[in-house]
Amino acid sequence: MRDSTTGGIPHQQPNDLLKRLFTPKPATPSVPVPPPAWVQESTGFGDNGHRGAFGEEFIRMLATAANLDVTRKERDRVGVDWQLGYAGRRGTRRYPAIEAQVKCTSSPVIDDDHIRYSLKLKNYNQLAGPDYEMPRFLFLVLAATDPHAWVHATEERLRVSHAAFWLCLHDKKPVELDGNISASTTRTVYIPRTNLLTADSLHHLFAEDYRDLVGV
């Protein structure tokens, strides 16, 4: 089924859970639209790699809108996916930079004031503690289960669904791994829903308060 109001583009319905979270009033259910033939013929559409790529591009879009330099770490060996900074010499007070580990989920556990997310201890330890050259953050992107709901483009706007949140763990201690605790074990982190990531809030993450938490 095609909709003339969207220029012939099929409606893209968001995930029910996230729709209830971000839609003030329940929307009238609509008839599901079957995916186009090119989607049915593709393989791996919406798998973990696809969702992860969307999450990273979500962050790149926000950082670009915030007029920040964005550098992608091609080999994630130290728990960093992106480095964000202001133009200039790296590592100076005048031109600060931050690093981010990006995760994307379509099944968040959402409470009144925070979001619960299970993070592998390997990733947790790559974010926790103060022994870093620059501040590190966890960026959690919430995306619908259906990839067709991730973006909705018209002639007037591009809507990207749904949201991203940030968390700083420099005030937490890394977990010591032993025979009973492995790097694949998970630890639940609690991300305040007030930590909504926007083009404006990205700039707040460069504050001296976060830089004072780290140092080598």
Provide the helix percentage: 10-25%
SS element count, helices: 6
Distance between the termini: 59 Å
Instruction: Please state the CA-atom Rg, rounded to the nearest Å.
Output: 19 Å
Instruction: Describe the largest sheet.
Output: 5 strands, mixed
Report the portion of residues in β strands.
15-25%
Order of helices and strands: HHHEEEEEHEEEEEHH
Arithmetic mean pLDDT: 79
The number of strands is 10
Q: Name the shape in a single word.
A: globular
Structural class: alpha+beta
User: Biggest sheet: strands side by side, in what order?
Assistant: 1-2-3-6-9
Name the poorly predicted regions: 1-6, 38-45
Tell me what you see in this structure.
By secondary structure, the chain is α+β, with helices and mostly antiparallel strands. It has 6 helices and 10 strands. It has helices spanning 16-22, 37-40, 48-65, 121-125, 199-204, 208-211, and strands at 69-72, 82-85, 97-105, 109-110, 114-120, 136-142, 151-153, 158-160, 163-167, 186-192. The chain has a 5-stranded mixed sheet, with helices on one face. It has a 3-stranded antiparallel sheet with strand order 4-5-10. Strands 7-8 form a two-stranded antiparallel ribbon. Strand 4 (109-110) and strand 5 (114-120) form a beta hairpin. The protein is globular, with a radius of gyration of 19 Å. The termini are far apart. Residues 1-6 and 38-45 have low confidence and may be disordered.
